[in-house]
């Protein structure tokens, strides 16, 4: 697992997961479908990503495909930082 | 003329069997298919022993399966009880036990949390899976698990329904101030009173394509499903994630040529500011309906400017009565100088509302505040297995001396304006709205005060434009206890649905009290 994936996984597990039953998180665990990411947490997640990876996430990139799982988020971050 | 909800489906099937009843992305069901699948599921339920009056749980994310499920359960003669897929198992277990659910419809996606739910709800004996995915039921030896392919093997011929319209169609659980939710009992007659009015008021027909965004446990969902089916239109399901991604929601409205949307104001506000509506073709959208909380006028104005050809209607009504008043927004209301939200309007057809003051007298003069009471068949049957709380809110209509008539006390304070429209002022208690969801602050307080590390707790709501309210908690820890904001939120999530998790938590030395010993909420609000 790359450093990007690791730091995203840690953030999601520490800050967004309320239910210890599903940690440690699977990289493909459906975060959106299971309500781990909701309107409140999406804002904090985006802020975390922008600060952590020194990127700017435009509104047009706020689409479900980029936030489905830790894997999706990592892929998206990699595509911006490339 | 239909007197039961499943008959709305049967009537539309006979008029136009091949018309699309429901759509989800690229999948769809025609009216004939929806009828046939719900017949198969209804027979499966009856074969499991479901009889008139039983309660069947639905633990499924919004999907085509959830639409089949509601009709199937009612055809089997039972009341459906939607379980919030995002609520913790303890809360769902309470609900399932409270109303005696013995059969649960569940999707494969919910199978992992199901184990926890089943341990909390010992009465559930049968689980029917609503996906084609087969699950190994080995982990649940005492539970009878029926796979979807078994349902598909059952006859799909019409099921004879012997209910009367006073029987329950569904039970919706809402926040209760004592710490546990209460189940609002809705009969077929109760909900049809609203549906019949809505279809006529909005001139709905087969050409209508109506989004269905609200989850099943939220009463807004009943318009999406039943008004559309009665009209013979098409239900366009909106994936729950789309509420987080307004551009995606806007694109869906465009691609699906949606004609009517019914959403909570906070979602419409997000759609307006972040949905990039200018890029979308929304020429088909003819009616925007909002309810559930106050819609800040500046967002309504902006939305109306972006979609000027649509009609805008505000609906009001607690879960206990579904919608009971309505107000059509006029051009004058959108005047740039207006700062107040629009009124809640006048009673819908076949419903009556009136204002009662603290002395128990009807208020008929304009401008005088009082509590709004509702009467008519739109008033539900009360709270499941809770005669005390039912009696407190569903009272004898004292203004009808000749026969027993029930009125529901909403707890909302309103007044009549110069145009004869009711205008909302506030609550008489501690109930607030967050993104349209009803929250009794007392429920959060009760849950927190049960935490052994918390000595005292007080919860207040701070008005927020986007979400309606932000929940702020003040706590005093027990001696020696170490509390973190994350820790407290985790604790709450073991009992409360996500939307009730506090937004901020502040530790204080003592909770300020008034001279009579009650929590001084005004002081807490000032602490800010």
Provide structural commentary.
The complex is a heterodimer of chains A (82) and B (528). Chain A has 82 residues and is mainly α. Chain A has a single domain, classed as Non-ribosomal Peptide Synthetase Peptidyl Carrier Protein, Chain A. Helix content of chain A is 50%, strand content 0%. Chain A has helices spanning 3-16, 39-53, 70-81. In chain A, helix 1 runs antiparallel to helix 2 and helix 1 packs across helix 3. Chain A is globular, with a radius of gyration of 12 Å. Chain A starts with a helix and ends with a helix. The model of chain A has no long low-confidence stretch (mean pLDDT 88). Chain B has 528 residues and is α/β, with parallel strands linked by helices. Chain B has three domains: 5-187, Rossmann fold (3-Layer(aba) Sandwich), CATH 3.40.50; 238-429, ANL, N-terminal domain (Rossmann fold, 3-Layer(aba) Sandwich), CATH 3.40.50; 431-527, GMP Synthetase, Chain A, domain 3, CATH 3.30.300.30. Helices cover 29% and strands 26% of the residues of chain B. Chain B is built from 15 helices and 27 strands. The longest helix of chain B is centred in the first third of the chain and has 17 residues, at 31-47. The termini of chain B are far apart. The relative contact order of chain B is 0.09. The A-B interface holds A 14-15, 18-22, 30, 32-35, 37-40, 42, 59-60, 62-64, 67 and B 61, 85-86, 88, 109, 112-113, 116, 239-245, 247-248, 270, 274, 276, 435, 467, 486, 489-490, 493-494, 498, 501, 503.
- Total DSSP E strands of chain A: 0
Mean pLDDT of chain B: 92
| Spatial shape of chain B | globular
Strand tally of chain B is 27
**Computed Rg of chain B:** 23 Å
Summed up, the domain count of chain A is 1
CATH topology of chain A: Non-ribosomal Peptide Synthetase Peptidyl Carrier Protein, Chain A
Number of helices of chain A: 3
| H/E element order of chain A | HHH
Multimerization state: heterodimer
